[in-house]
Design a protein that fits this description.
This protein is about 75% helix and about 0% strand. The chain is an all-alpha fold. The protein contains 12 helices and no strands.
């Protein structure tokens, strides 16, 4: 390779890196400039503090909450709700960057500003994933802080926080993937309302119906436990070994998957990657309608 070719390749790499940094700043400024962003993040923070305080209720003096009760507090009872409440609150923020562009006809402005549709879409995914991680980890810190304070003031023992770490990891993985899924779906359907309905109804009803149908088919019944949101719930359902057998069976019913936490996380991440690829194709190949 000649020095000239090497120089050109280096310059191109620097240009791509600069373009990506510019795109990330563009998307981040747009997100933080919206009042709705701070309202929804404030709601997540307030609910996290409340979840931590209420986790100490029903615990006798001198005893500690179970690891499972703290995991459900951190995840805002994601298992029984099918989707974490914090994820539902972030849904409009994750769908907005794409759906708003197409509904208001500003997509071409974004493409002209960033000079690359692919760069623009990747930046949306990166910023969305960062927002999901911030919500999960920030919410976890607030739950832990408020729960520790409430338990100390009530004279109750502290839980074994290390036992909640697998649940926190599963929850964080879900929350990082969630904005990527929302953005990708919004890119394909090009409607914030349609994306919201699809992403609320599918985990609640669609997967349940699909799981029942698959379980009836010989040879494909094993696939019922591998549906993406069931796998996502399996990734978050750690700490159930502290429950009674009856309560554990109830949690397993809500989860709808017998995958291990690690396998569930891997399935959900792969599902996210596939959707992101489809979303990238839709964003880069299709013009605004």
């Amino acid at each position: 390779m000649s020095p000239t070719t090497l120089s050109l390749d280096t310059d191109a790499s620097v240009t791509r890196s600069t373009a990506m940094q510019r795109a990330i700043r563009y998307e981040w400024r747009h997100l933080t400039a919206l009042r709705s962003t701070w309202i929804l993040l404030g709601a997540v923070a307030a609910l996290s503090l409340l979840a931590g305080v209420t986790a100490s209720f029903g615990v006798g003096s001198g005893t500690a909450p179970s690891a499972w009760s703290m995991v459900t507090a951190i995840q805002m009872d994601a298992i029984s709700m099918q989707i974490p409440l914090s994820a539902l609150l972030l849904l409009p923020l994750a769908s907005g960057p794409v759906a708003t562009e197409f509904s208001r006809g500003t997509a071409r402005t974004t493409w002209l500003t960033l000079a690359s549709r692919r760069t623009a879409f990747v930046a949306k995914l990166l910023v969305g994933g960062a927002l999901g991680a911030l919500s999960a980890l920030g919410g976890t810190a607030l739950v832990a802080m408020s729960a520790s304070t409430a338990l100390a003031l009530a004279g109750k023992a502290q839980p074994t926080w290390t036992q909640t770490l697998p649940g926190v990891l599963g929850y964080t993985a879900f929350m990082v993937c969630w904005p990527l899924i929302v953005t990708s779906v919004a890119t394909v359907v090009r409607s914030r309302i349609a994306a919201a309905l699809l992403l609320v109804l599918w985990p609640l009803l669609g997967e349940r119906i699909a799981g029942i149908l698959l379980s009836l088919g010989p040879g494909v019944d094993v696939l019922a436990g591998w549906l993406p949101f069931g796998a996502g719930r399996a990734a978050m359902a750690t700490g159930t070994d502290t429950l009674t057998s009856a309560d554990r069976a109830l949690v397993e019913t809500f989860v709808g998957s017998d995958l291990s936490a690690g396998t569930g996380a891997a399935v959900f991440i792969c599902f996210t990657i596939v959707l992101a690829i489809i979303g990238a194709w839709s964003y880069t190949k299709k013009d605004p309608r």
